[in-house]
Amino acid sequence: MLDEPTTGLHPADIDKLMTQLQTLVDAGNTVIVVEHERSVIAACDWVVDIGPGAGNDGGKIVAAGPPTEGKTCKCGPI
Question: Residue 3 in 3-state DSSP?
Fold first, then answer.
């Protein structure tokens, strides 16, 4: 499980990170990432969008599914 692993990374470093994460997946591992970077979200098999607020206003699942389905919530497409 990774929490915002792309924070502060250059786009080239994000590509390197994604290569390493894909290696873990290809080896049969499950990788869970909490992320806002759209390129990372697009590469996922399954997305759970929790929001759109924080605290008492957040923590609700507003959309879930493969990013290729183009599901949308009031906070935008996933």
Answer: strand
